[in-house]
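User: Hey, my collaborator sent me this sequence without any context and asked if I could get a structure. I don't really work with proteins. Can you help?
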Amino acid sequence: MMSSTTETIPTYDAIVIGAGFAGIYLVHKLRDELGLHVKAFERGAGVGGTWYWNRYPGARCDFESDYYSYSFNDEIQQEWDWTERYAPQPEILRYANYVADKLDVRRDIELNTTVERAVWDEASHTWTVSCDTGVTARARYLISGTGILSVPSTPKFEGMDTFKGKIYHTGDWPHEGVDFTGLRVGVIGTGSSAIQSIPLIAEEAAQLTVFQRTATFTVPAANRPVTENERRATKRSYAQLRAQARRSQTGVLIEQPLGPYGEVDERIVRGELERRWRGSGFGTTSVLSDNLRSIEANNYTSQFVRDKIHEIVDDPEVAKLLEPHDYPIGTKRLALDTNYYATYNRENVKLVSVRKTPIERFSQSGIVVGDTEYEFDAIVLATGFDAATGALDRIRFEGVDGRTLTDAWAEGAKSYLGLGVAGFPNFFTVTGPGCPAILTNVIASIEHHVEWIADYIEHMRAEGITRTEVTAEAQEAWVAHVAELAAMTLYPTAASWYMGANIPGKPRVFLAYLGGLHNYRDRCDKIAEDGYPGFVHASDGAPLASEQVAVGA
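Assistant: No problem. I've predicted the 3D structure and written it out in structure-token form, which is a compact way to encode the shape of the chain:
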């Protein structure tokens, strides 16, 4: 028997953490298609997840809009009109809000509510969730949709609290925007968010100084407006495009490689590199089929991009500083830019390398590097994210025998398929560590995860199963498989956020399945067909209140 106190806790079939693209679809799928009683908690004041928080200048998606969008509802596909090839943040956020309204999910989402703790109860086979607002709720299933890039990584420089100007982080940008007109601005970092924002900040600022530790490979986005003819053609072909994308490596359709390095005429390779660079540099790294396996092939592609930097940047010394040499191209997330390298030709832009002489401290007036103090009115921290696991680490998950997720991941994040974690029953992670999401069009991965989880829950309810848990053996085998695939490539040679290398003290585990979205989908389908091997089931949990009444009542 449960205590009367426990009985007063609001009870649901499923609790969802987050209201980004995963959370929106989860609420709709579980509530409207499975008939479950669902509640989602979102720490922001609106839906949209990553695109709610990341409002820095120039923020936009690096996958084409036609693919970076939901495919599960054709009415939504036909009604929504994308205006640019690569949608900017405001447009993506409008899209998220449009879908939330279209599906009427807001009534089951509690905004401005941060989940702080989730505790598993073995007797009832339920999770009890506690939030910072004092709200407590209980559910049979707990599903995380917290996102891959939702927790900013904020450096702790000495004297930051003494700086008299403003400090901004690209991952937590003021929603009202920032006017840099006439200001002296410093930007720390040259990753993707810096590469997108620096050209626009430079247009406003009186002086912009960029502090670079590691040069980053970036290629031109070749962004442009979508024509009406293109829009109509895409809408006519959506069914075919989506089907092909699901059977692709990355969840988008890209041009195929010419072949391996050394087996294709170098003149043809060079010509194709030039063509893809101009059309959209994103395809540059896929000209050679062994670009991520052969260092010789990768060196050839890398040098092509380095040569482009020297073609664009007027000052040879600045161009030299911008040359990436620390990692093979493609082994860190490839950035797409608009006029990034050309921005360093502006008279009001200065590049400072902090590789050999790091930032020593902040002062009241700015930033001190070695013997030089740079004075600023505003400083932008473009220092990235605690990717893949950062949002989960913020929540105290207590699984079997009270063991926390933090303890379970003390040696690195482990999961089975990126969907579940041993020791944490009835807990599912959308785009969790060990799935292909971070190397794919993430919405394609989100849709697959949501649909697979929903099918599994439907199966369990039909069979009277109230408890499912990943086995330790299945988890270890999957982690080993993910590592084995990574070891066959150049990925582990880079100190990337794919391995948590950007976060001091974070255990190094490769966080992405490299077999491709198509193979991953096949693997998950086979697991479902075979009765979900890798999970153990039980059926003696106490019934929930929502299971004793009409579903959704």
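In plain terms: The chain has three domains: 9-150+387-539, 152-216+334-384, 254-331. You can pass these tokens on to your collaborator as they are.
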